[in-house]
Amino acid sequence: MIHSNAGIISFMLLTFLILIRICTGQNKDSSPIRLAVLAPGDETLPFALHKVVPAVLYAVQTLARQGGRRMEVLHRDTECSSTYGPLHAFELYNSGLADVLLGPLCPYVLAPVARYSSVWELPILTAAGQNDNFDFKEPHYRLLTRMNGSYSQIGMIFLQVLKKFNWEVVALLFHNFEDRTIGNSDCYFTLGAVYTALGRKSFYKDFDETSKTINYEEMLKEVSQNARGRQPFLCLLVCYVLNCMEQ
What Gene Ontology terms describe where this protein resides (cellular component) (predicted)? Predict the structure, then answer.
């Protein structure tokens, strides 16, 4: 879950400009840097366009007052769609309208666009992409810069916690969408990295928190039976604890 996307996007922009200055020095080129923001238009999302774009514009105006290189900002509504999001990226690339992409912020849009960017030589800066699939820069994600780290770091933290307390038997309980046409939840991706760190051997159980038919008592009994080892304890990694549940 991304909690403060406006500030994160501003930080992304500042970081990109610092990198440009480091790499190019006193670049005399007067042509503007074209920044393309790819984000969903759905105002209910914490990283909607109307929340992200003002932060980018504010950062651009601030840097302009400081004498920075001229920049232009445009944006496209990805609709959080793995179809329409990449189509907008293609349009930007074919039209030569973007020098750098800010976003996408939805994982199912980011994955294909990040792969295309390596071919296009078009860098991507995003506050998303914590899925551990993006940890492998080569060959597909070499121009992807993630400002929020990776869920695999959470996996490493849990390994240290388990080692500290001598815990060996773990069950994973997390929210995921029953309707698979909308993809997987943030909880799925978060605990997916934990599952990988644990050696892909742990018992796991997913449930849709919006379902009216879930028998929580039976579900917890099932999980408890698979999380008990020789030690008299139950270790549950629940996505609520990780605070990645949709608000």
Answer: membrane
Nearest to 95 by CA among 32, 16, 34, 30: 34
CA 154 to chain centre: 14
Residues 21, 24, 26, 27: is their CA dihedral positive or negative? negative
Stated pTM of the model = 0.73
Taking only the tens place, the pLDDT of each residue in 4-42 is: 454 555 555 555 555 455 444 445 567 888 999 999 999
Alpha-carbon distance values, 72 to 36, 87, 191, 193 (Å): 8, 21, 39, 37
Residue 138, CA distances (Å) to 75, 101, 210, 232 in order: 28, 19, 38, 44
The CA distance from 147 to 49, in Å, is 18
Is the N-terminal amide bond of 139 cis, ω within 30° of 0? Answer: yes
- With a cut of 70, list the residues of the chain below it in pLDDT: 1-29, 228-247
